[in-house]
Amino acid sequence: MKDSHNRVIDYIRISITDRCNLRCRYCMPEDIPSISHDEIMRFESILRICRLAGSLGIRKFKVTGGEPLVRKGCLPFLKELKALPDTEQVTLTTNGVLLKDCLPTLKEIGIDGVNVSLDTLNPDTFFRITRRPDFSQVIDSILSCQAAGIRTKVNTVLLQGVNDGEFFDLVHLARDYPLDVRFIEIMPIGCGRQYRGYNKDSLLPLLVSKYPDYEYSNETRGNGPAVYITIPGFQGYIGFIDAIHGKFCHQCNRVRLTSDGLLKPCLYYNSGTNLKELIRNQADDEQLLSAIKNAIYHKPTEHQFFHTALEGPEELRKMSQIGG
Q: Which of 29, 59, 94, 242 could cross-link with 199 by S-S, CB 3.0 to 4.6 Å?
């Protein structure tokens, strides 16, 4: 389906929980309240929405959280999502703590890819960022995931004065293993506003100084806006995602479904369509389909981080409450 700006929307990010077993400082404070279980979307409702979205041309699904693997029933849900008639791709974003034990089932399901968030290769820094001592589980999960033949990406947020000295250590994961490492510019949402990060323009010159024979890749390596480069001798790719300084709204292909049932056409705005309420009010498929189509068609032109909002108020919820 196309929105009013003629962008093809074929991808939805689905948060199935706002809960997480880590407490990363730029994402989730220790004292953040969780949504009550009664307010979380039931899996059968999410699958119904995805089936209808598939009929509109949304074929690619990313399952996120919070941490999706902490929700009971996540793996059976992924299997059912993968089996929907219009589904072309199902991928998972996770912090990796619980991932290793799930790999046999994910392999059996035919998961199309797993993104693991990891900002450091130093256990002490990991504890400093996440406030949890689970580094060994995460790195073990990443290495086991790629060894299992599942397409693996590592998502990294570099923060000034926190983990920026580890840039090349993280880059070298893609040298030593067949996985992609993506450096993501921190979003000024919730606790993220308290930190200063890096974008491609500040990181690429560092990479070029050590690896001047890099090349940009034209290969499609996912559904998002990452810019990838290849380096001779590396098994994987290095990616950069600059949501702010490399604004890519003109080619945005996604919408988001929060764990409490809000269909958000744009991460920035404090707005969306409450699909959970429609379902609880006994909306039939035609009514639900109409609501989804309307939300997609009126997707805002662009986000307005650091500018005056033109199409509505700014989102004030934390990232974990919206969905990663």
A: 242
Amino acid type, 45: S
> What is d(CA 252, CA 231) in angstroms, rounded to the nearest whole number?
27
- Residue 12, burial from CB neighbour count under 10 angstroms (0-12, 13-18, 19+): buried
Q: Would you state the structure tokens that stand for residue 196, as one six-digit string? A: 């200063």
What's the one-letter identity of residue 59? R
Domain spans of the chain, in order of start: 11-322
- The answer to whether the beta carbons of residues 226 and 217 sit under 8 Å apart is no
From residue 55, how far is each of 10, 67, 112, 206, 285 by CA, in Å?
A: 11, 28, 20, 45, 11
Average pLDDT, the chain: 90
13's enclosing H/E stretch is strand 11-15
- β-bridge mates for residue 159, sequence order: 197
pTM of the full predicted structure? 0.91
Q: Which fold has domain 11-322?
A: TIM Barrel (3.20.20)
**Residue 226 CB burial class (10 angstroms; 0-12, 13-18, ≥19):** buried
Amino acid at position 52, single letter? L
Q: What is the residue type of 170? A: L
pLDDT of residue 24: 86
Whether omega for the bond prior to residue 113 falls within 30 degrees of 0, making it cis, is: no
> Which pLDDT band holds residue 221 (cuts at 50, 70, 90)?
confident
Residue 189, sorted as left (phi over 0), alpha (psi -120 to 50) or beta, turns out to be beta
pLDDT, residue 196, reads 81
Tell me the C-alpha distance between 252 and 61, whole Å: 15
